Amino acid sequence: MTKRPRRNHSPEFKAKVALAAIRGERTLIELSQQFDVHPNQIKQWKDLLLEGASGVFGADAKAEPAAPIVDVKTLHAKIGELTLENDFLEGALNKAGLLGAKK
């Protein structure tokens, strides 16, 4: 018997199979034959779907991802520091003759 290569199923396919298992219209064996997936895998996907379903209706679903807090003063200070470094390096390279004509 030849070994079948490892398959990666899409999230849509997993959801489709798990929903079919939750409906209960067919047994796991029938579903495994229909979708060509091992019954244990179907059971795992079903359990994951049931476990994560509460998150759809919970308070976590309404929470929007928080935007990172930006401190404008810190950013301006960093810009000033980098400008100072660039000016210093430009002057040093000009003295050494390693920097060509100005842009």
From TrEMBL:
One of its GO terms (molecular function) is sequence-specific DNA binding. InterPro entries: Transposase_8, Trp_repressor/repl_initiator. It comes from the Bacteria. GO terms for biological process: DNA transposition. It holds the Pfam family HTH_Tnp_1. This is Transposase.
